[in-house]
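Figure 6 in text form: structure in, sequence out.
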């Protein structure tokens, strides 16, 4: 029968066990030994789940305490110089301490180092730690995690396929930290470490090794494309009898097809969810003996697989190359979907009708096995054939469901005209009116929106949802928390305040709960970065806004102060990207539906007297197609969706947007086209490098470059922030600059938040004094 192949499994645990253990370790509540035991427990459970599901090729080394790219960085010893003192410090010599310092920064015992830069993993909401390379970069085997975890599984009687990021993709994921070289120049220094890793795995009898090379599905220059054959010849030679699988995903091979098919490897994985059209070309040219792993089950979304559709691809491949050379797999690692649908037992938020349409990671394993069995034979009356019939019945129920379609919503999208997406006046005219209305100083200070959500705040929400706290009591507590936040912001001297978002659970889920067309899971968690997990809502149908969503709490906060309070909204593209989105209509149609709902909220806030409204779009770069040929169409509708949400207000209402962990160089003209009055961006980890794109473009509107990294517990000094803003002032007109953190402060604690923001306000005062002196 057909082989089954899994590329990776969620590492957080069905009940977020990894998050809880990691955060307990960081806060000193559990020991290192206990954290390591928690990791082993999750890994063991994952391996057993896959074994019981009948998966033939079970991955190992897909587990990580923080990030798989950081794991690779530690494996190859690419440790930036600023961590060398920490690595040599006896109290922090252990690998895990160094690892977390690189991920989160370190500030203790006289050592103060910043974390590594973090950015999005291709077009997902997962964040990875960006490798840092220098011209004379040295590599050496530092961590043997990949070997150790293979051995752990072996001890459990489970043969696994170790997974690691391929050497070319690893270099391309990184960044040159000095001029005068290309990171691909380092390939000769890097490959010997991979050869050493292969050698160690061979000693344990490893049968297969998976190399993830997602860049093979992206636009490559001739040099990068040409390196693949050269590098994998060496790796195959080192492997001997151990077989190599190269996995591509998130796009089709396209112009890299020849390069991929010429690799001297044993198996190639392709993503047929994102790029089903590539199968014909691959089957036409596939060399004799090469095994083809078909990525048919969606590793990025939660809808059930359509067995009939998948079987057409399986049949085509089997007829061409035979069953022994066809594997059935998810499109990519299942890291990007929740663990187990069986935990969803709240019919009030996820009805049985919608649950019927879904599959999480564990259920996707079952789909992979079913497709392998059905691809082998389709005998009526068998158990698997019964599951096939039920699968097709579920697909039909979804297609005909009255829950999905609302004609009035579709008609409103059809009625959109150009004037709906343009502000009344130019930015220059608007800015003059906003300066008069708001009377803000040079280098105005603000935060991105959220303040720390303490255990108490989260417990109030939990008790309220369980019925243990009345609505009146809950709202009284939130009002008091908001009042204290406003009072503190006034005392510290911030110029533009926020209400703190204490009533909100998540920046997408909060809005989804108030929009039609959404359903919600109880345990549908996926990893965003480190211990940070998100629970994307399920966008299953046409979207509309039945009532005000944020007006009450923003208006209440504004009533407490004479300073401006920002209205805080999540933008349409981010709501789209950070949801599990329906796959039965073009994404742009769904984006416009959301944009109209947000537009209604923007106008309601303005009517309530809110003069600054922030529409966050941290995911707009994330949604960019990976292939350049498809990017223009996306950017056109993504920018249009934002403008549709924002453009209805008067000139003296100031529209902000926020974006984080994005490279802007190639889309800067589109960011400018969004025409937000103020954009705040993440820049502290990159030491203001991201501002170069804005400077080179001569960006016309105002910019708030983040001056401290909120994803790290370290507290930056006033001097550090002044230095960063001086770098910004060297390339951007100071009259355009705002002073703010990188992102929202929801995940931080109050003591560090207060200390950092107090330093930030003092930094702004220093900048003003310097500007006045000049």
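Output sequence:
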């Amino acid at each position: 029968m057909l082989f089954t192949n899994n590329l990776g499994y969620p590492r957080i645990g069905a009940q977020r066990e990894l998050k809880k253990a990691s955060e307990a370790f960081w806060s000193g509540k559990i020991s290192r030994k206990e954290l390591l035991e928690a990791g082993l427990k999750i890994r063991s459970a994952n391996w057993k789940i896959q074994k019981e599901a009948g998966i033939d090729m079970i991955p190992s080394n897909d587990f990580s305490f923080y990030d798989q790219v950081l794991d690779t960085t530690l494996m190859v010893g690419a440790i930036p110089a600023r961590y060398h003192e920490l690595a040599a410090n006896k109290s922090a010599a252990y690998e895990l301490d160094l690892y977390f310092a690189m991920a989160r920064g370190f500030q203790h015992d006289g050592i103060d180092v910043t974390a590594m830069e973090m950015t999005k993993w291709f077009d997902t909401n997962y964040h990875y730690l960006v490798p840092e390379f220098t011209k004379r970069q040295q590599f050496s085997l530092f961590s043997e995690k990949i070997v150790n975890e293979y051995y752990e599984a072996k001890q459990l009687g489970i043969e696994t396929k170790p997974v690691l990021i391929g050497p070319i993709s690893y270099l391309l994921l990184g960044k040159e930290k000095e001029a005068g070289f290309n990171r691909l120049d380092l390939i000769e220094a890097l490959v010997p470490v991979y050869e050493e890793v292969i050698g160690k795995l061979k000693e344990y009898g490893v049968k297969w090794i998976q190399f993830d090379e997602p860049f093979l599905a992206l636009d490559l220059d001739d040099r990068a494309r040409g390196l693949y054959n050269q590098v994998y010849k060496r790796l195959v030679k080192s492997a001997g009898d151990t077989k190599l699988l190269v996995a591509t995903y998130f796009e089709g091979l396209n112009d890299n097809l020849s390069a991929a098919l010429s690799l001297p490897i044993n198996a190639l994985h392709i993503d047929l969810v994102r790029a089903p059209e590539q199968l014909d070309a691959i089957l036409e040219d596939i060399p004799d003996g090469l095994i083809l792993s078909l990525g048919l089950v969606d590793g990025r979304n939660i809808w059930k697989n359509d067995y009939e559709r998948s079987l057409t691809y399986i049949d085509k491949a089997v007829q061409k190359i035979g069953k022994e050379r066809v594997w059935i797999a998810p499109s990519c690692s299942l890291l990007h979907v929740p663990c187990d649908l069986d935990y969803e037992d709240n019919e009030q938020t996820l009805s049985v009708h919608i649950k019927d349409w879904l599959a999480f990671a564990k259920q996707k394993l079952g789909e992979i096995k079913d497709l392998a069995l059905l691809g082998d034979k389709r005998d009526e009356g068998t158990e698997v054939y019964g599951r096939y019939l039920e699968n097709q019945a579920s697909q039909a129920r979804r297609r005909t469901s009255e829950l999905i379609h609302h004609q009035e919503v579709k008609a409103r999208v059809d009625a959109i005209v150009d004037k709906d997406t343009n502000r009344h006046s130019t930015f220059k005219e608007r800015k003059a009116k906003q300066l008069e209305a708001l009377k803000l100083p040079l280098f105005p200070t603000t935060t991105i929106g959220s303040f720390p959500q303490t255990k108490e705040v989260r417990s109030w929400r939990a008790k309220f949802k369980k019925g243990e706290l009345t609505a009146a009591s809950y709202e009284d507590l939130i009002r008091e928390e908001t009042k204290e936040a406003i009072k503190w912001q006034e005392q510290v001297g911030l110029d533009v305040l926020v209400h703190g978002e204490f009533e909100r659970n998540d920046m997408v889920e909060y809005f989804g709960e108030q929009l039609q067309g959404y359903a919600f899971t109880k345990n549908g968690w996926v990893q965003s970065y480190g211990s940070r997990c998100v629970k994307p809502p399920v966008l299953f149908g046409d979207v509309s806004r039945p009532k005000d969503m944020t007006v009450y709490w923003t208006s209440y906060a504004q009533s407490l102060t004479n300073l401006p309070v920002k209205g805080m909204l999540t933008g349409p593209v981010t709501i789209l990207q950070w949801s599990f989105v329906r796959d039965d209509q073009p994404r742009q149609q769904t984006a416009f539906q959301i944009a109209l709902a947000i537009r209604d909220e923007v106008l309601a806030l303005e009517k309530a007297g809110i003069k600054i409204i922030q529409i966050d779009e941290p995911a707009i770069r994330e949604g960019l197609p990976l292939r350049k040929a498809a990017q223009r169409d996306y950017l056109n509708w993504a920018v249009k969706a934002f403008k549709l949400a924002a453009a209805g207000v008067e000139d003296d209402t100031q529209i902000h947007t926020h974006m984080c962990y994005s490279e802007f160089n190639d889309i800067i003209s589109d960011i400018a086209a969004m025409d937000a009055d103020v954009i705040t961006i993440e820049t502290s980890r990159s030491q203001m490098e991201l501002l170069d794109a804005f400077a080179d473009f001569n960006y016309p509107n105002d910019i708030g470059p983040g001056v401290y990294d909120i994803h790290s517990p370290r507290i930056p000094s006033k001097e550090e922030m002044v230095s960063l803003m001086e770098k910004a002032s060297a390339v951007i007109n100071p009259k355009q600059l705002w002073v703010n953190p990188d992102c929202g402060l929801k995940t931080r604690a109050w003591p560090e938040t207060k200390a950092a923001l107090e330093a930030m306000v003092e930094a702004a005062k220093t900048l003003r004094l310097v500007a006045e002196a000049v």
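Caption detail: Residues 81-115 form one domain.
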